[in-house]
Write a structure and sequence with these properties.
With 153 residues, this protein is of the alpha+beta class. The chain has two domains: 30 residues; 87 residues, SH3 type barrels. The protein is 25% helix and 27% strand. Strands 1, 2, 3, 4, 5 and 6 form a six-stranded antiparallel sheet that branches. The longest helix is centred in the first third of the chain and has 27 residues. It is rod-shaped, with a radius of gyration of 38 Å. The N and C termini lie far apart (124 Å). The model has no long low-confidence stretch (mean pLDDT 83).
Length: 153
């Protein structure tokens, strides 16, 4: 065969000097940026979680009045605000007075706070003393008594 008729099938192999065996590395500056931003995101997440724990949001109720049972066994009825925070307040406060009537039978009377000598218009509650909170339903006897007391004014 002639030299001119010869056809090469495989491309020329690169010489060892031409082969780049190491892939390009990121610059140290680029990887430190990634680490910085990752650390910043973690720090922001930790700060946000800490803020949410230290600043709890108040529970909102779908009923007008709530029954609040305290650790001393006393139950109050009213509009509870700020429940779930460090400073819950009970407004328009009612409580049950138990006694005996003339026939020595037990009676329970719903009384509105505010008629005491100091005339309180609200109660600031210690959140650690609240045992339970329940809604007062619009068809309950307590709700009816509160409505009747408000109409008497």
């Amino acid at each position: 065969m002639d030299e001119e008729q010869r056809i090469e099938i495989a491309p020329e192999a690169a010489t060892p000097e031409e082969i780049d065996e190491e892939p390009e590395r990121e610059s140290p500056r680029g990887s430190s940026r990634i680490i910085f931003f990752a650390a910043l995101m973690v720090a922001l997440a930790v700060i946000a979680a800490g803020w949410m724990v230290s600043h709890p949001s108040a529970v909102s109720f779908d009923q007008t009045y709530q029954a609040v049972l305290l650790s001393n066994g006393q139950t109050y009825f009213g509009r509870l605000e700020g429940y779930g925070t460090e400073n819950p307040v009970l407004r328009e406060v009612y409580y049950v007075q138990s006694g005996l009537n003339d026939q020595k039978q037990p009676t329970n009377i719903l009384t509105k706070r505010g008629r005491e000598l100091h005339g309180p218009d609200r109660m600031y509650l210690n959140p650690r003393q609240i045992v339970m909170v329940e809604p007062v339903g619009p068809t309950s006897r307590v709700f009816e008594l509160i409505r009747d007391l408000k109409l008497q004014r």
